[in-house]
Amino acid sequence: MKGKWAAGIPPRNFTWVIKDRLAVSERPGGFAPNHRKVRRQEEIIWLQVQGFTSVVSLLPSSHNLQAYQEQELPSIHFPLPQSGDTRAVQLDLFRELHTRLTAGERLLVHQEELGDRVMGVVAGYLLWSGRLPSGPQAVTVLEHMIGHQMGPSGRELVVVASQLAPVAVDPDSGPAGN
Q1: pLDDT tens digits for 127-158?
Q2: What distance in Å separates the CA atoms of residue 29 and residue 57, rounded to the nearest whole number?
Q3: Which residues face 67 on adjacent strands?
Q4: C-beta pairs of 29-37 under 8 Å, 24+ apart in sequence
Q5: pTM for this structure?
Q6: Nearest partner of 25 among 17, 14, 33, 36, judged by Cα
Q7: Given 3, 93, 149, 163, which is the most exposed site by the fewest CB atoms within 10 A?
Q8: Rounded to an integer, what distance in angstroms lies between the CA atom of residue 126 and that of residue 118?
Q9: Domain spanning 8-162 has what CATH number?
């Protein structure tokens, strides 16, 4: 590839949640009916050029995981169930995010589209990790960052996060956005 395409293109709805550390977007390549292999490849290239160390997929299926592997972009899969108990998945995910972010990694979290469930999981992580003091504040911060209200399914994930044993607060972690 040459020219402007050599650097790839950012995934749709790409947003930094923790500046230069944790970002969210829709699935690279687009969601199901609009998914394009060429676009996915361009977006993976962009993630690599930007220094992302891993992609975190919350999809219930393994879509895109092989593409990440083929392009040598590490990925982690935490299939978030559409219904039922999400506690175990959320706790495992939060611990993994915390370990990787503490180690200085740059992560992208996605699901099919950037919607309530991704917003709820990431707001839940900010609450669980001690970066934000309350569920309502975590919801408000994510709504402001993403630019739309979080619906009931996302808010429920924040409630679940508030019930999980929190990580020890790192005084140097700073607030969201830093």
Answers
A1: 999 999 999 999 999 999 999 999 999 999 99
A2: 13
A3: none
A4: 29/64, 29/67, 31/112, 31/113, 32/112, 37/67
A5: 0.90
A6: 14
A7: 3
A8: 12
A9: 3.90.190.10
